[in-house]
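[User] I wish I could look at a protein chain and see how it folds. I have put the entry right below:
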Amino acid sequence: MSENPTAAAAGTINIGGDLTVNRIGFGAMRITGDGIMGPPADRERAKAALRKAVELGVNFIDTADSYGPNVSEELIAETLHPYPDDLVIATKGGLLRPGPNRWEADGRPEHLREVCEGSLRRLKLDQIPLYQFHRPDPKVPFAESIGALIQLREEGKIRHIGVSNVSEEQVHEALKLTPVVSVQNRYNLNDRSSEAMVDLCDQEGLVFLPWAPIQDSDQLVPVRTAADRHKMSTRQVALAWLLGRSPQILPIPGSGSPEHVAQNVAAAAIHLTSEEANAIFNLAA
């Protein structure tokens, strides 16, 4: 492994045919306060984490209006604007925040329009490169919510549409309505409920953004074994495994610490053997 690995070591991935980014991103949920509410305890440290990510070649940042709410987007703009030419910022809309660690779906077209326009203002963007429907709302027909994003794209306010926390059936429904470029679902070594979704993204050429990508990996024996062999942390091995799982996976680990950001990016340079990767994959068998 190189001495100072950057996100470029993971290779690149294409989003929507016209955006190419390094295949280690940054998830900006953790630059907010406890319970993903309010400002971070150490604002300057959170800003340093964002700067470190970009310094290390990360050019894909994932956020949402509900992170804070608004705090994550505001910090991104405060820290990084004017943005590097190659930086792709993805954000999401469709969740309300009634309190810490509480999330409620709101997929009404008028709400999605309102929060998308708010994200444009906070991020200081003329167009959001990737806008994702954060979670289907059981009270609103899925097609109506997607229709709102189609209209926003037609108006030039968003460039590409993504979906999040969806089923395979909902992905197929969305694809019948419009081109969709990405899916963001929970997926990690301990939660493989989206295994079939990863395969679907492979088939359809969609980017898969796993959220909570490195959660609860430290107690898994094959992960610890690989970590010892590579002299890396279990979190880094978990990220390396995701990179090897599918070329369509774009991990978005997040942290409010610049040191942790550097450790996450270093995973881009880890290459697991097929035996190590298979032993980890078979944990779900």
